[in-house]
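Lab notes, practical 5.
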Amino acid sequence: MSVELIAIVPRTPLQTTPKATPGIMSDLDVASHYNLPSEYPEEWPAALDEENGSDEEPLERTRSRPRKSRYFALERTPSDWRNGYGSRRGKETRENAHDDEPDPLGRGDSVLRILKQKGLRLEEESGKRSRFLLSSTSFSPALFLSQAHHSDSIESLIAGLDHLSHSIDQKSASLKVLVEANFERFVRAKATIDSVYTEMRDQGVAKEQTLAPRRSGHFRSLSGQRGVSPSPSSVGQVAPRKTALVKESEYGLKGIRAPLVEASVKAEEVWGPALGGRDREQVLKSVMETMEKQRDVYEIGSHLSKSIQQRDYDSVFEQYTKARTLANRAKSIVEQASSSRRQLSDHEAHTILAMGRMWLDVDEQIHLFKRELWRRLGDAPTTSTTSTASGPVEEHMELIGALLELGVDDNPIWTWLHSRYEFLKTKIISFCERCKVEIEILRRRLAAEDKPSAKTVASYLRLAPRDGSADVQERLDTDHVIELWDCIKTYLDRLLSSQGGLVGELLDFWEVAHAFIDGSRQRLLPVGFEGESRKHHKLSPANVEELERGAVELVNLIRDNVLALFNEPPTEDISLLSSPIPPSPTTPVSHGVTPTESRFKLDPKNLPIIAPQRGEHWEGFAFWPPFSNSLSGVHYLSKFLVIVGTAASEMAALRPVSSSGSTYDLLKSLVSVARERSARIACTAWSKDAEVCKMLEDWTRDSEKRDLTKMPGLFVGFESAILGGMQKILYISEAMSKSGTVDVVTQPPAKLLQMVRTQFVSSVYKALSGLVENAEHATPSDEDNEWVITRPVMASQALDAALSVLAADSVNSQDRNVRILLTLSNLKALQSEYVPQLITNFEVSFSVKLTEEGKTIRDVLKQIEDRLFQSYTTPTIGLLTKTITTGIESPDWVPQTDRPDQVRPYVYKTLLALVLVHTEISTTIPSTVSAGASRASPNSPTSLLNSVLTHLLVQISTALLNSFRSRDNFALSALMQATLDTEFIAQTLSQYSTEEASGIQSQIYVELDRRTTNEARAKLQADLGELRVVLKRLRDRTKGEFACFRKPRSGHKHTPT
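Output from the prediction step:
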């Protein structure tokens, strides 16, 4: 029974433990305790000097420790565990540790191989080797790091520490689970051992004896036992019999030891000569000599196994070459003996047997090793590299070289190229099928939502960059629409990108395949044992042809999937995500393109259904998100076509594709079809959004041009963004920026240009029609809703001041005249600045002239302006005409005296009405009042104020003429009053007089002269001087009331209030 087992057996008070002294321990115990090689060593072993200090404690210190409890084996200190676990020692005091082990810091090589690379060879020095092995108790961390990892960086050491911590946590967790799961079994086993030991030890003792309680580590148990000491009588009663398993009877073996010794002696005397014959001795000696001579042969198998486990390919090749050389030597011995017809000598027979045994082992190991290499070669990607002693090497090249070095029947180069082709084909099919379904699910969910309102669409159209920049910082559509756009872009990127996409993997594959075809890659590959693998260095013509067909097939596969996205209607089958086929070990994992993969864990019984047809323009386009606006559409479609055009150009540059005319034409057709479909749906969405452009009008002033609202700038920004996107869609110029590509992007056909041209003119016309509608009809205001607070309740004066600044930009949109005036001002700006800018932008972008279209747009602008102008002035003209007609036809219009000194009240009413018009225009459009507000020439642009007052003056003159014509004759007093009224109005509004107004005034005097007598005519001529004095006095008296009609002095600039 072991010392440790005895130590944990419970003791009863009937047994007394004598005080431990050195004399009681046997020589074997002393040697075992101090790890000595024998009971009587001649010197202290040097290996023990390297142990921890805890291993060198003297025997007396161990003996002087207090008695341990029965469970002391579960209460070991860390040093006890270190000394007991993994530190078994042999006869030469060396630990039975492993010969080698993996690097504890996670490096791919083993510890001894790392040290070998550093220049330290410790295979035969087990003492020094143990200090570098983590499983050894003499492991030295400082020595290990200084020798094995002295050149590692801090990052690699930190990564190694994480790997070591993770390994310790895994082992600790498994040990903890084992102990927790089997703790009760441990306790029951311990109790059973105690019971059996007690029964065997006390064999023959009376059963009725009462056993003393077990020792307890608790202080109360110790104190309670101190007062109880067994009496001599009680000791005598429990004395065990002579057959009890106690130390005095050598644990029950004393009685049979003597007969056994006698029987052994007799057996030796009888069978010794027969079993130990001299012949047997000679045979054994001969076998030992033969094995000693063939030691290298017998060690090849173990060395090969070790090299395979460590993936030391150089060592594997060395051992395998050595084994094949020895096997050929044994074969030649047999052939020579057979040719000479002689018997093999004993030495030759032993040699052949040793070689055969060795070759069977080596051949089996190499066969398994080749199978593993074939498996890894089939999974090796094109661009993966591995680190070797000579530097980084491509993984597939390393594996191909290993197979060629070992010698194989199949060509590993062709096998790997064919496996990569199959891998890419499967990956492209699975990726495109999954992404197609994901895009359709998002499209169906989006189509099932409510159609956004015109205000919602207009809110995103406002986000178009007004400076014409290509970079868009704002989200141009709703979150769900942008999500679908991003998913489609991600799909095209992962499929068609040359950097990380499937097209990139295809290009890498063909680059490597082409290098193998022309033989440049084979220069670095070995030729194998005696040149047996040289035949695999060159691909056969059939293999080359099949590789070229495979490359063309992959290109067509990618093209077909992209073409299906742009040219085919949305797919109806989306069952792929509800019942996916689990991938096999060689099947590539297909990841989707959606940002939230959890959204596609679908219930097969509740799949999104196809939305009912509502006649929407996007229903037949799988790549256009439902309800997407044209702004986000042209932004993303221009990116899509750049991706498609670039990928098509790169694929067309491949030699098998360029030599195949049909595939090259198909790639050109792909770009053309994608462009045509994109332009068509974009123009349709553009037309829809142009009808919503009227909602861009929010009746707030432009921050830079106060006489305009924000609508012209927003409309021009929207149109410019659409034109820029359409230009990129039609020409795809960015796709040809890379060198080394083949041109597959053709010039846009004339029908596409005409479609864009027509849509541009149509969008401008629809936007202008919306301006008229906004001006003539008030839009619903938030003030009409009792649940909307039109002005925030603020107590702070600072907030009120800020609100007043914001209010300065807004106008009274409920006033029809204000709306019309601002719209007229916007129209003038569109006519003179914005629309010509758009036309120029279109002509530059698409290299066409819009002569007829520009004239049409200008005519439409003039018609709309005339319509709104008449709409604004007609009510005022009606009021003025009524005032003038009523005043002149009034009975008291004729003065009582022949020399009137006042104009009639209707004149003041008429002029005050014009003052109100002047005030309304100047406050609504402040920048129109300036020193230069005069009509220099018919072709120069005039202000809106001048245009309105000039037109009203003409209408006032016409009303005066018609009213005077209604009277049959004019006496002298009536003639004087008519002249005074007409001249007062003409002189007050002289700034706005035109040739037409002057002609009508001259016609008034002709009509007056025609309806009066010669006497009255003569007196009028005589009193003209006095009439001028009256006019001057009246104008001076009304100078303040009608100052707005006076022409500003030269150099004086009027500042609007």
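Observations recorded by the TA: The chain has a mean pLDDT of 78. DSSP finds 35 helices and two strands in the chain.
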